[in-house]
Amino acid sequence: MGGSGLWPVTLRAGDLALRPLRYRDRSEWMALRARNRDWLEPWEASNPQPGGGLPTFGQMVRSLSHQAREGSALPFVITLDDPRRRRAPMVGQLTVSSIVWGSALMATLGYWVDRGHAGRGIAPTAVALATDYCFADLGLHRMEINIRPENAPSLRVVEKLGFRYEGLRPRYLHINGAWADHESYALTAEEVPEGGVLGRWLSSRG
């Protein structure tokens, strides 16, 4: 299947890395999510089925790993080098999902970042890094990001990276217990400048 031979992969930009999500990340991932519960809860996907719950960590990793092997997802964690620690700590998660090959060559991207690291350029750097990989290495043509209209920090991320606004999707996803509107942003390969999305973002930061 297209692109499946390019996983697993680790991507890096300075002290930030995107590496595959693994079973052994459970303790660190659970602790990070617990610290950020209030920060993330308003934007969390939920199960619309009556009495339905979300998958456990193990179920999530199993499902995403299967999708990665099939070439339909790229499940990354975001890490940031820390000279005080041997292993770079996790500061968030980024998943490229719904990868479609054939005549579409498109995917959807979602992400979250630890509240204590927000505002430091981590999210846009991670999104730019993953987007460049999808265009340059996987050969995708379109990347899409859907964001709640109230989620100002995430809206700033796509605006900084030059994603194009495509319109409102009413009741697009079930979020925090209710069907929620989302604003859709996209970027196609033709819109990427020479040097890539990451190059443009880093240049804008001086």
Automatic annotation (TrEMBL):
It is an enzyme of class 2 (transferase). The keyword NADP does not apply. The keyword Calcium does not apply. Residues 16-190 form the N-acetyltransferase domain. One of its GO terms (molecular function) is transferase activity. It comes from the Bacteria. Keywords: Acyltransferase, Transferase. Its EC number is 2.-.-.-. PROSITE patterns: GNAT. PANTHER family: [RIBOSOMAL PROTEIN US5]-ALANINE N-ACETYLTRANSFERASE, GNAT FAMILY, PUTATIVE (AFU_ORTHOLOGUE AFUA_3G00765)-RELATED-RELATED. Belongs to the acetyltransferase family. RimJ subfamily. This is GNAT family protein. It comes from Sinomonas halotolerans. The lineage of its organism: Bacteria, Bacillati, Actinomycetota, Actinomycetes, Micrococcales.
